Amino acid sequence: MLAVLSAFGPRHRSLSLSDIARRAGLTLPTAHRLAGELVSWGGLERDPAGRYSVGLRLLELAALAPRGLQLREAAFPFLDDLHSLTRGNVHLAVRDGREVVYVETLRARAAATNSRVGDRWPMHATGTGLVLLAHAEPAFQAEVLRSPLERFTRYTITDPGELRRQLAFIRQSGVAVARGTITPDDLVVAAPVRDPSGQVAAAISVVVQVAGARPRELARLLTATSRSLSQRLAGAPARVVEPSGARQAG
Questions:
Q1: Non-local CB neighbours of 233 within 8 Å, separated by 6+ positions
Q2: Burial class (CB in 10 A: 0-12, 13-18, 19+), 119
Q3: Which pLDDT score is estimated for 47?
Q4: Which residues form the HTH iclR-type domain (predicted)?
Q5: What distance in Å separates the CA atoms of residue 160 and residue 212, rounded to the nearest whole number?
Q6: Residues pairing with 183 in the sheet
């Protein structure tokens, strides 16, 4: 049953029964039986054409996840401020294995990257992923550096030595700034979000078009926002303050 649910993803939101069987590695009769049980429970929904999608029952369960909707609710006012100030794509992401998962996105009207909640990306290829990887335990960093690093554009860091140097710089500067790692014309700035114990639990980022972007101003804005959000998670009063010149093109 978990294999059936795992067949769905950001790029596979609606599946036929044969799609489910193939992606889950199940026989067609087994996939049919399990999908039917999930439909009865509410975990899947079936449209008139016979295609399946994730059901609302799973959304109810997701609301209980401390790194999901609860984190989104706390972060949304800060993300909304970022979105208004920068006019860019704004992301809130957490680590899941060697990937980052977007638990909240606010999209620009004209953006090359069509980000959605639930999207997954390799950690080395996104601003939020670089931040989370930079603050991960050394053993995990070494594991990622030993693994194949997928290239999306000519700017994607795929050399382990270069990535190691980039992670050290992110820890020193407090922010990640990357250009064109997934889409060539985009610039991303990301910063860590800390939980009440002081550990990095999430990351926030803003993606704008390279043309007209001011990364230093964005870095100051992301740093102030991440600090305020971390204070809110710790139970202290916090607000986002707009630095001068923070508004970005794109």
A1: 74, 193, 194, 195, 196, 201
A2: buried
A3: 94
A4: 1-56
A5: 31
A6: none
